[in-house]
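User: Continuing from earlier, I have the next pair ready.

Assistant: Great, send them over.

User: Here they are, in order.

Assistant: Folding the first of the pair now:
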Amino acid sequence: MTIRFDNRVVIITGAGNGLGRQHALQMAARGAKVVVNDYGGSADGTGGSSEPAERVVAEIIAAGGEAMAHGANVANAEQVADMVDKTMAKWGRIDILVNNAGILRDRAFGKMTMEDWNAVMTVHVTGSTICTMAVWPHMKAANYGRIVMTSSSSGIYGNFGQSNYGAAKMAVIGLMNVLHIEGAKNNIRINTLAPGAATRMTEELLPPPVIGLMKPELVTPGLLYLVSEDGPSRVILDATAGGFARTYIYETDGVCFAPDDCTPENVAAHFAEISDPAGQHLYEGGGEQVMKFVTKAAAVAGMKLG
């Protein structure tokens, strides 16, 4: 099976450099019409220039592809609306959205300022939300959509000095979980890519030998699968240095106490059992987890449900 995107239109945010650029180039090479979005700011979100997006568009056109540039700030709803309107005017459809735009403002939490916190949360979380909201009606009308959020190991597992970034990168996973449920009836599939790559945002943190292994182009094949016709939904795909894995969020079976026994002392005494991974479960929605505990509580109380 060859994955192609002929006649598909994709918007890729933050596509002027690094991972976004590779996403744009490789999707265009497989037939997609690409909106290369980039605000053109520095890694911390300051400044702005149309040059990065226009440069990538020129690369795509030189290779025989179709592309247009747009410099919308993803956190600005009016600018994003203009990008979506111009895309619809040019190509009449939006099939795929890749929420890739991001910034870094790293510092230890004790030195974190609310300005740096809000700047990172606004671009990663609010920006992803604004862009998704803007394309959602078009995807619903077409009964087709593929959307990818971009997370990170810093969000899933943590990383010193990245409390703002880590919080933002877990937030988009929560957004994916809900949109997966809401988009299913309209064939809108939502996934999350958790990449590791040597880009302008990370190169200063990596030793030279590692930089050579962590090429952005070794991440993009995972992205292309996620947004393909037969791609999955509600997947967290980890991609680094040509390696791919899947992150699951499991919950242990746990313990349920009768009301009179529901004390912190009993939680402490049974914490090993509460933590036991045997019988852990993957839930598709929050209601399933609630029903697990309600069912257990009913059994402890000798009640029958339903």
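And the other member of the pair:
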Amino acid sequence: MDEVLEAHKKEYGEAPDVVAVAPGRFHLIGEHSWFFKDKTLSMAVNLPVYVAVSKRTDSNLRFRFVQLDDSKRGSLASLKFRKEDKWANAVKSVISGFSSGGFDCCGMNFTIWSDIQPSAGFGITSAIKIATAWCIKELFHFRQCRRVELLQVLERANRLYYGIGNHKADNFTPIYSKEGCVVLTDYSRNECETIPFKFKGRTIILTDARVPRINTWNEGSLQQPENALLLGELRESRSNVRGGWRYEENESERNEVLSVVDEDTRRRLLCVIEEHRCVLDACSAISDGDFSSFARAVKKSHENMRDLYDISCPEIDWILKRVQELDQNPDDLRNPVNCGRITGKGFGRCTYSVLRNEDLEGYKKKLADYERIFGFSPACYVVKPTRGVHLV
């Protein structure tokens, strides 16, 4: 916090009027099925993003990202997406979200402080947006702007400024998270639930594999209304299932409904179906304190991403294979003691792993082999589930 205050004073000659901190986050399972109003299981983690703001007497905007040693400029009259503004677009989008909702602001000075760069894929851009929203609400005393209105601000920021759909889990997780919990976002109900994550003797580690990120196919091609209608035909109401429904489990019925699409689309829609089951299985296992069942759901989810959704790569698969080898009996598929999966922005270049404490050093040693074999220098972060956004 002292570094944040000092950086703001150094850049603008004054202390900030308000500071907010929002957590980073990663998705455990289900982040690719939001369009189909499905479920996503996520975790807010102690990779904090600080946003400090002070008022100006004009309508100009100034932005400073301390760790990137980068400054940007703008004004309230030109709140449009500019590729060259890079990370500053996240802040501008939120200001646009307020102004398009009838909230009046003046010029502001912003300082962003985060040890993790937005490109890493651990929810840093989302954290910047959310901390910015909390700062602006406090700075201008928008008392009528409650959480539901702040969510609308963030949705307008995505829809009107970026022209993208709203990944509610990206917003719900850093806002509603509680310490020691995961967050389940239900898109069909537009709500979320926190579930205590109480596996003892385990370490959570995020790994940025540093593989150049490329899109192997256009995910937007799957997100079509006709595909949503097909999956809707396969939904069944179930009162004893979290969220009140599940997908048809009969393979013949699935194949018949999905026979009207090409093979690539069929496989990816099957992945959405399987991911829903993995989310439900993982949530039940977390609630029951059953790590083996949780690990099997995570492993199955990664296999879905690799074999059906086509987003993994040899480097990521190599890392996760090494996680499995840390088990004393790696061939005992019913009782795994470690697990991991691909995660990260878009098509991902990162993994998360949940390891026994005693296996952490062994995992780091295997990453040394990864760098030697593939030539990429990975970055690792030991994390824990943390509380949501708050003013400091």
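Worth noting for the second one:
The CA atoms of residues 71 and 169 lie 29 Å apart. The chain has eleven helices and 14 strands.
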